[in-house]
């Protein structure tokens, strides 16, 4: 119970801090779905949910900037106390603000697409191409007819526990289609965000994660073009096209 109370205290303090910042600060750029807790009433009970992430540059005047640091110190300590009581040692990802000092004059926001890759080899991979709830089984049957016409190994799997139906194929069907022994499969996982902080003084610019950045004065904000493609990067003209597969496929040489 004590651990639960400490987590409640942390979330209460964080909710108050984010609301105060939203009301007193000036947003210079905001790439967040929400920068405050989202509230809803369920059967007369007030429920709140914290934002999943915050990507924002917020300007505060000097006096508010110092007050924000003091308020955040209380929030951070409440978080540390709750983690210690829970026996959590790792540094959890959280929506903590990053305070940028007054010498900052410019922030370049850099966004690059992120992918995860794996190699499709012969006889070692099943690929799931479709999934739905059991209530929409007719969709699965329709998709099975279409998928099995392209990939002979297509199978339907019914999972009672999760109440889902999926259609999978043997990876060999894909390898055979392109006469390949191995194929690289890349899946888009989202975007990677960084912020490059440029200073007025003689310091070199610093790279920081683009999270919740707070500055004590207005700074110039620039969206930087994506990084130049590496020589060994995958090219669109080399991409293989296979029906019903959501991965980007590239034949390994």
Task: List strands and helices in order, with pairings.
Blueprint: H1 2-24, E1 26-30, E2 38-42, E3 45-49, E4 56-59, H2 62-86, E5 97-99, E6 104-121, E7 126-133, H3 137-150, E8 155-159, E9 164-170, H4 171-177, E10 182-199, E11 206-209, E12 212-215, E13 220-224, E14 239-240, E15 248-251
Parallel strand pairs: 4-12, 5-12, 6-13
Antiparallel strand pairs: 1-4, 2-3, 6-10, 7-9, 8-9, 10-11, 10-15, 14-15
How would you characterize this protein structure?
The protein is of the alpha+beta class and 253 residues long. It folds into two domains: 1-117 and 190-238, no CATH class; 118-186 and 239-251, no CATH class. It is built from four helices and 15 strands. The strands form four sheets. Strands 6, 10, 11, 13, 14 and 15 form a six-stranded mixed beta sheet that branches. Helix 1 packs antiparallel against helix 2 (62-86).
Brief overview:
With 253 residues, the protein is of the alpha+beta class. The protein is 27% helix and 38% strand.
Radius of gyration: 25 Å
Strand content: 35-45%
| Poorly predicted spans | none
What's the β-strand tally? 15
Question: Given the C-alpha coordinates, what overall shape results?
Answer: extended
N-to-C SSE string, H for helix and E for strand:
HEEEEHEEEHEEHEEEEEE
Multimeric state: single chain
List keywords for this structure.
single chain, 15 strands, alpha+beta, 2 domains
